[in-house]
Amino acid sequence: MKFPRRHPSSLWRDRVGVVFLSIVALLSVLTAWMLFSRLLDTEREMDSVVREDAMWAIFQSDRHLRQLESLAFLIVETGDPGLHDQFMRSYDILYSRVSLIAGGTFFLDLSSEGKLSQRVTAFKQYIVALAPRIDALVPESDDYLSEMSEIATQLQAQAQLSNDLVLGANAAINAMRVDDRVLRREIQDQLALLALVLIVAFLGIFALLMMQLRRIAKSNRHMALLQERSRRQALRAQAASRAKSAFLATMSHEIRTPLNGIIGSADLLSFASLPQQHMRRLDTIRASAALLRDLIDGILDFSKLEAGRFEARSGELDLDELRDLMSKAFEGQAQEAGLTLTVDMPSGKVVTNDARVRQVMINLIGNAIKFTPEGRVQLRGSLQGDDVLRIEVEDDGIGIAPEDMPRLFREFSQLDGSYARKYGGSGLGLAICKRIIDGMQGAIGVQSTPGKGSLFWFEVPVRKVVHVDTPQAAASRAAGTSAPPEALHVLVVEDNEINLDVMKGILENLGHRCSEARNGHEAVTFLQNIQPDIVLMDMQMPVMDGVAATRVLRGMGLTLPVIGVTANAFSEDRDACLDAGMDAFVPKPVTNAVLANILAQFTPDTGTRAHSAPGGAADVETTADQPDDPAVSAGGMDNPQLDDLVAALGVDIVASLIDRFEADITVLQNDLGAVINDGDDAAQDDLLHTFKGGALTLGMMCSGAYAQEMRAKLPLDIGQLDHLLVLAQDDVAHARHSLNLSAIA
Amino acid sequence: MLGFTRYLLPVFLLFSAGSAVSQTLNQPQGAVILEISGQVAVTNTEGAAQFDLEMIEALDQLVIDVETPWHEGPQQFSGPRIVDLMAAAAASGSELRFVAINDYAANMPWDDIEAHDVILASRHNGDTMSVRDKGPLFVIYPFNENPELRNEVYYGRSVWQVKAIQVLP
Question: Are A710 and A716 spatial neighbours (Cβ–Cβ below 8 Å)?
Answer without folding.
Answer: yes
